[in-house]
Design a protein that fits this description.
Layout lengths: L8 H26 L9 H20 L2 H12 L1 H18 L1 H14 L42
């Protein structure tokens, strides 16, 4: 049996953020049409959301409960207010359904949304000291050079 997949919070946050950008874009287009004005340009984030929306809707419809579907409806009506609720719904549904979790992972990869964790190494020489955890997302390389003065601890 395959190992259950764990979805990183960054993946779900990124997908919901893109979906939010798409819903806001759709609202702006509808407003422009009503005012007989030219539609706004679609941002890259809205394009990612346009790609994510049908997969998220289908996954929640297939694997979610009635309250999950209701939260998705509320999100589409008011994405600002219900953004966090949709993130929780996707976390819950993805935890219940490995196929849906895999779809979200694939979608995030295709959309260029950060899907990995943090990796790195720290080299300390002489009497260097590292205090506290270092966390964050880095898609490239970080080089940090410290020059210690005689009075540094």
């Amino acid at each position: 049996m395959a190992e259950p997949i764990t979805i990183a919070t960054a993946v779900i946050t990124g997908l919901v953020g893109a979906y939010k950008a798409y819903t806001e874009y759709r609202a702006a287009v509808a407003k422009a049409e009503a005012e007989k004005a030219p539609p706004p340009a679609k941002s890259q984030e809205a394009a990612k959301g346009e790609q994510a929306a049908p997969i998220i809707k289908a996954g929640v419809a297939q694997h979610g409960e009635a309250k999950d579907q209701k939260a998705l409806e509320h999100f589409e009506e008011d994405p600002e207010t219900y953004q966090e609720a949709l993130q929780k719904v996707l976390e819950r549904v993805a935890a219940r359904s490995q196929p849906f979790a895999e779809q979200l992972q694939t979608l995030a990869r295709q959309a260029g949304i950060q899907t990995g964790g943090t990796q790195g190494s720290v080299n300390v020489s002489d009497e260097g000291e590292i205090i506290g955890p270092a966390t964050g997302v880095n898609e490239g390389t970080i080089n940090v050079t410290y020059t210690l003065r005689p009075d540094d601890q």
